């Protein structure tokens, strides 16, 4: 089996010009209520006070006679009638409590044209993160990334020379998670297709995930362990030459990973659980931490199916997930077989219950809305739902998912993105950000699993290193 990891695409190997018009505000198409809406205590935590980017590439449809910019702009205005809090501005009250001032001012929108075709992206194998010239496809308007008193969404629609287009979206994470953003974008898609109302009506109801009175923390929540400033700086890779790469895991790669596991455990584990344990173990080996250092796996768990008393409405678009953490030393992860990591992943996934979520909301108000600990941490989030954003006559995206590896000042995060290769093979693309030397070792670790190019399999280590260096 050949591990297919193309060389990273840089702005030098794929350059193009983007002509942007000035940013404008798109406000609701009809008058909306002016009110103050409190966020939930799951929304309102320090670790979510940032904007997260996603990007969607759509092919040209010769039967589509409409301009995608005009269609999406109009659909956004209609969608914001229903999702009107997103057109407001975040304010901070006593004890740093966040609320939305529903001003109706609108979200930021940028119209653009690129001297580039979708085929050129595909020819360069550039339809996976890190995207070349990403900042051109999602321009950072000055002041727009502020958490307070700024638009909560920024959207840039860029027409391509071939008739296709790129829709890049950045959203303030405290207002919504991936599932909530998908609901919003699917409603935009429905209006773009000519609908007059959303199929799933949006629901605010943030009080359903607010702290109890009195607050009563019943779980340990080690994901919020206190960390020193030095530990945080080390976790962020400050001073290191960080590089980003994407890795494709199709059926053949997943079969190879499962062969590292006992059959009874492999058969009872999902692809996401299996891949997460694999990424955690081999990334740790590449980093070469102190053997006694605690390494953390933060596994994002959607809590919507866990909540029953009461359940969250289908249209709930707030944050409804947890950051449960698995912890093991560097020595345990790298010296014990893969099943050790997998069992920890399965345990932490099952730890998220309804009571866990209630306890988490209580922790936020009793501990001053702490940030999750990033020391020795690797965060995994499954955002494959973005591949289903069917945009009217343009259909599903060629690529729909996260725009980068890492978020804000924490590069130690990866996202699972649904991906289909040009020959039709489907799988998961995982962007990874590591220090340069650790990335070389990570590729070598994967090479040893998938290609058998290490010395133990009859090839010299220098030959493996030569292959790695040529692909970086």
What's a quick, concise take on this entry?
It contains 13 helices and 18 strands. It has 472 residues and is of the alpha+beta class.
Key traits:
472 residues, alpha+beta, Chloramphenicol Acetyltransferase, 2 domains, seven-stranded mixed beta sheet, six-stranded mixed beta sheet, 28% helix, 21% strand, globular, disordered C terminus, transferase
Description of the molecule:
- The chain is α+β, with helices and mostly antiparallel strands and 472 residues long.
- It folds into two domains: 18-202, Chloramphenicol Acetyltransferase; 222-392 and 405-470, Chloramphenicol acetyltransferase-like domain (Chloramphenicol Acetyltransferase), CATH 3.30.559.
- 28% of the residues lie in helices and 21% in strands.
- The protein is built from 13 helices and 18 strands.
- It has helices at 68-82, 118-123, 134-137, 178-192, 229-235, 251-258, 263-267, 271-287, 330-335, 338-350, 354-366, 436-450, 461-470; strands at 18-20, 24-26, 36-38, 51-58, 89-92, 98-101, 107-114, 153-159, 165-172, 242-249, 294-299, 301-302, 321-322, 325-329, 377-382, 399-402, 413-420, 426-435.
- Strands 1, 2, 4, 7, 8, 9 and 16 form a seven-stranded mixed beta sheet that branches.
- A hairpin with a 5-residue loop joins strand 17 (413-420) and strand 18 (426-435).
- Helix 1 crosses helix 4, helix 8 (271-287) packs across helix 10 and helix 8 (271-287) packs across helix 12.
- The two termini are 20 Å apart.
- Mean pLDDT is 89; it is low at 1-12, 235-239 and 453-472.
- Belongs to the plant acyltransferase family.
- One of its GO terms (molecular function) is transferase activity.
- Pfam families: Transferase.
């Amino acid at each position: 089996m050949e591990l297919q990891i193309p060389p990273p695409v840089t702005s030098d190997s794929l350059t193009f010009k983007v002509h942007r018009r000035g940013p404008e505000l798109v406000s609701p198409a009809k008058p909306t209520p002016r009110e103050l809406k409190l966020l939930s205590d799951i929304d309102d935590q320090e670790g979510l006070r940032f904007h997260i980017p996603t990007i969607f590439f759509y092919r040209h449809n010769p039967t589509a006679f409409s301009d995608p910019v005009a269609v999406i702009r109009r659909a956004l205005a209609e969608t914001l009638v229903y999702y009107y809090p997103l057109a407001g501005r975040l304010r901070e009250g006593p004890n740093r409590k966040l609320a939305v001032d529903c001003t109706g001012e609108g979200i930021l929108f940028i119209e653009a044209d690129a001297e580039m075709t979708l085929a050129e992206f595909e020819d360069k194998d550039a339809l996976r993160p890190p995207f070349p010239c990403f900042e051109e496809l999602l321009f950072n308007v000055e002041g727009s990334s502020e958490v307070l008193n700024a638009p909560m969404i920024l959207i840039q629609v860029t027409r391509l020379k071939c008739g296709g287009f790129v829709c890049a979206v950045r959203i303030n994470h405290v207002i919504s998670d991936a599932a909530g953003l998908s609901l919003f974008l699917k409603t935009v898609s429905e209006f773009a297709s000519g609908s007059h109302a959303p199929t799933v009506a949006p629901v605010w109801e943030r009080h359903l995930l607010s702290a109890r009175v009195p607050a009563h923390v019943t779980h340990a929540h080690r994901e919020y362990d206190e960390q020193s400033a030095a530990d945080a700086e080390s976790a962020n890779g400050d001073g290191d030459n960080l590089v980003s790469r994407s890795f494709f895991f199709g059926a053949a790669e997943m079969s190879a990973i499962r062969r590292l596991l006992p059959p009874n455990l492999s058969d009872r584990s999902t692809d996401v659980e299996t891949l997460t344990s694999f990424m955690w173990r081999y990334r740790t080996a590449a980093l070469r931490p102190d053997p006694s250092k605690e390494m953390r796996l933060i596994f994002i768990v959607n809590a919507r199916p866990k909540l029953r008393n009461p359940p969250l409405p289908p249209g709930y678009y707030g944050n409804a997930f947890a950051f449960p953490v698995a912890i093991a030393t560097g020595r345990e992860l790298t010296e014990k077989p893969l099943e050790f990591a997998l069992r920890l992943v399965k345990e932490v996934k099952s730890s998220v219950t309804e009571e866990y979520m209630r306890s988490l909301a209580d922790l936020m108000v009793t501990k001053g809305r702490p940030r999750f600990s990033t020391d020795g941490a690797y965060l995994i989030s499954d955002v494959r739902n973005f591949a289903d954003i069917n945009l009217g006559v343009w259909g599903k995206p060629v690529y729909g998912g996260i725009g980068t590896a890492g978020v804000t000042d924490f590069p130690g995060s990866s996202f699972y993105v649904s991906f289909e290769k040009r020959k039709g093979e489907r799988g998961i693309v995982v962007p990874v950000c590591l220090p340069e030397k650790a990335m070389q070792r990570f590729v070598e670790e994967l090479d040893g699993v998938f290609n058998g190019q290490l010395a133990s399999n009859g090839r010299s280590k220098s030959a493996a290193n030569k292959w790695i260096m040529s692909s970086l």
